Amino acid sequence: MYHRKRFRSVKFYSIPNRQKRPRAETRCGCPARMQVRMDDELGRRYVAYFSDEHNHSVLELRFSSMLPSHRRMSEVDIEQMNDIRKGGIPVSRIHGFMASLANGYYNVPYTTRDMHNVNAKQQREGGLDAESCLRYLREFKANDPALYYKEVVDGEGMLQHLFWCDGTNKIDYQVFGDVVAFDATYKKNIYLSLLVVFSGVNHHNEMVIFAATLVANEKEETYV
Fold it and tell me: Mean pLDDT of residues grouped by 10 in the chain (224 residues)?
């Protein structure tokens, strides 16, 4: 459906007690249209009428990739984005890097919102990675009964937080746990989760790990 045909219904201009500002007017009664019909004898469709006469300015061809119907990320783009994100580079800077390679933002057929949507989809489908991690911890616990881990999932069953420490970590904490350092990286992995490490120093002045956890956010209830 062409979004500039006809005009906006009058009722949308007279909504009482409107809380939000009305959206910009886009419909202008543009006569451009295409009519497609079905030829039953030939079993295929054909264009019965076509008019490209517009009563408004049209988008320049070089900006057509920004139209919602044209925006897309190829498999190569997604793979390149994932590789760069592993280095902790934010999506906005990756998009700027892609634009520099393509000699302009108008040559990049997707926006930062599209990139975030792809990331969200990958995280939703990343349940297999979470299950593999939990399976590894279960198998590790068979060899180290002192291993302790605890996972927290949301209402959709997606892994949100994961805490773990093994037998060696516990012994180190009992001996060298007088002072505990707390350090959180800032979403340096593909899942944008924070890695929190609890550590200390042993009698050789070497760092020892007491425990580690992956958290999805930095809310107070996450740490309590």
Answer: 73 73 78 90 92 84 77 88 83 91 87 87 68 86 92 79 93 93 71 84 93 84 72
Paired tokens of 180? 């505990």
Would residue 45 be called left, alpha or beta, if left means φ above 0 and alpha means ψ between -120 and 50 degrees? beta
Nearest Cα neighbor of 158 from 201, 206, 120, 189 is 120
Sequence spans of domains, the chain: 1-58, 63-126, 130-222
* Residue 119 and residue 192 in contact, taking contact as beta carbons nearer than 8 Å: yes
Say how many Å lie between the first and final Cα of the chain, rounded: 52
pTM exceeds 0.70: no
User: Quick one: tokens of 9?
Assistant: 């219904």
Considering only CA atoms, give the Rg of the chain.
28
Residue 222 in tokens:
């996450």
Q: What is the pLDDT of residue 120?
A: 77
Specify whether the backbone of 132 is left (phi greater than 0), alpha (psi in -120 to 50) or beta. alpha
Interatomic CA distance for residues 173 and 184, integer angstroms: 19
Q: What is the DSSP letter of 167?
A: H
Kindly report the backbone phi and psi dihedral angles of residue 177, in degrees, each rounded to the nearest multiple of 5, phi listed first. -85, 15
Look at residue 47 in the predicted model and tell me its pLDDT. Answer: 93
Amino acid in position 141: K
